[in-house]
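debug: dumping io for the single-chain case to check the tokenizer round-trip. Nothing else runs in this session.
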Amino acid sequence: MRWLSFLLVAVAALGLAPVAQAQTPVVPGVRQVPDSRAQVLQSFSPLVKRSAPAVVNVFTRKVVRERSSPLMNDPFFRRFFGDQLGGEQQREQNSLGSGVIVRKDGIIITNHHVIKGADEIRVVLYDRRELEATLVGSDERTDLAVLRVQAPSDGLPTLELGDSDGIEVGDLVLAIGNPFGVGQTVTSGIVSATARTMVGISDYRFFIQTDAAINPGNSGGALLDMHGKVIGINTAIYSQSGGSVGIGFAVPANMVRAVVAGLVDGGRVVRPWFGASGQAVGPDVAASLNLVRPGGVILETVVPNSPAARAGLRVGDVILSIDGREVEDPQALKFRIGTLGVGGKAQLGVIRQGLERRHTVALEAPPEDPPRQATPLQGRHPFSGATVANLSPALAEELGLESTSRGVIVMQVRQGSVAQRLGLQSGDIVVKINDTEIASVDAMKRAVGGERESWRLAIKRGERVMNVQVRG
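debug: decoded output
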């Protein structure tokens, strides 16, 4: 037994505890720091074996038509030269990504940018079987898409969507996908941040950040917790080289759940209309309001008769939480409202004049009020060739604008028209024409009636208002 005694001495010298050493009992539901090497030296293999079959590869094919001569993209040259400079050519464009099977009937989640514009979508299962997929629906604002495949006779493996609000920084996670097309790959890491809102990837900027290696091709794959539940859909990386540098982002599962429910059950995503907007509370504003720390959203606009207005909210109120979840900035407010389904109510934590209050807001669909009244404009004026519409909460949501936006919006600009030559674009909001505020399509039709020697236009594009002088 001398060899056993030597082994025990060696183990002690290395600072390692024998496997049989007594360990701190594990209390269910309580997070504990490992107190032995045996607790640390664990394998993810059982979790991967159970989860990996539900992560698929997504391949898309798109036929791109382009002119053989770039000059033919100019209407002037096409008008005078016809097809003499060359006709159209076709080429095939392929892309790859990943997806997650979440329902036995063949529902698969992936990213919008993976399948955007695809003419054909094919899914490759874990066991290399290929299935044709159809697009159920896509939500560009969250960069999510839902596919459907015909489930084989032996069924499909699935993964459950977890509660992304339950994760904490430091939690272990696994990322599963198909990076660079090399085949299914599993990487591990931790949650390095939550509620990342300063990442300009999609309209709903609220991401889980992880250092698990994510690379091109991982898009649409699963970010798993240690219970094998999907806590996020891997979407993007921060990189200057195109490869992983340890900063990846995933759409939280709670947003994924809301998008899937909308696309599968209703054919489109309908998010609640709040009817108020504001800015983040920084240090200076927090000090002026006698807040303990910066954080929250101070309201700058409350639309009359909106859910926010009927809940009793006012300009100057600071929203700190929704249903007990902290709201740090406008993107967090947008995310929290967006993950709640239409119908029911939400509880808001608010500070007004230094006092904490509770407000209950109804979760209602954005109304089509006023009706959009899409109208093509013709005549001798700067907007000739543009199609405009009344901007309602429903249309603002559809176009990814703030729900408080109002006025007349340019929906389309005809190629070669006066409006197009002046540089008008889809999404421009008409603020004023010759110093007259434009609140409706009817008001705009009156404003462009008749001939003028010059036109003064105020056009809002994004956050900037452009003042333009046009000669008649």
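debug: round-trip ok. The longest helix spans residues 253-266.
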